[in-house]
Amino acid sequence: MPKLETRRVAVKNFQRPDEIREFEGKGRVEILTLAGRDVARGTFEPGWRWSRNVKPIAGTDLCEVSHMGHCVSGRLRVMMEDGSSQEIGPGDTYAIPPGHDAEVVGEEPCVMLDFGEVGDYAKRR
Predict the structure, then answer these.
(1) 3-state secondary structure the chain
(2) Residue 59 neighbours by CB distance under 10 Å
(3) Rounded to an integer, what distance in angstroms lies between the CA atom of residue 101 and that of residue 120?
(4) Full pLDDT tens readout for the chain, 125 residues
(5) Overall CATH class of domain 19-114
(6) Domain residue ranges in the chain
(7) Phi, psi (degrees; rounded to nearest 5) at 56
C-alpha cells in the first residue's frame, strides 16, 4: 500500500478529474489521485449493467474489483456470483467484494463515490 503524505494537504475536485473512463454507453467513472490513492465518482445511467457496459472493457466474466464507497443518489443492485444480491441506495455506505455483476435500479442515474481498488476499474486492457 502506498504511504500517505502526512505533511501536506491534497485537495482535488471532480470538476477537473485526473482521468475519465467512459463505459460502453450509459455512464462513466471519473478518477482523482490523491496521496498515491485513487478515488472514483461513478455515474451509472438508467439501463446500465456491468455485464453489458463494463465487461467488454474489463475482459472478465464478473467485476473483479473490490469496492468501498458511498451512494450519493440513485439505486444499484449488486449480484454476487453465489446468487445473493443486495440493493444500495442514497446514503448507503458499502463494501463489495470481487466477483459480482451490478445494475441500475429505476429511472434515476446512480452516483457513487468509491475509495476501493478502483485504479484499474473500467480501464481498457
Answers:
(1) CCCCCCCCCCCCCCCCCCEEEECCCCEEEEEEEECCEEEEEEEECCCCEHHHHCHHHHCCCCECCCEEEEEEECEEEEEECCCCEEEECCCCEEEECCCEEEEEECCCCEEEEECCCCCCCCCCC
(2) 10
(3) 16
(4) 556 556 889 999 999 999 999 999 999 999 999 999 999 999 999 999 999 999 999 999 999 999 999 999 999 999 999 999 999 999 999 999 999 999 999 999 999 999 999 888 888 76
(5) mainly beta
(6) 19-114
(7) -60, -25
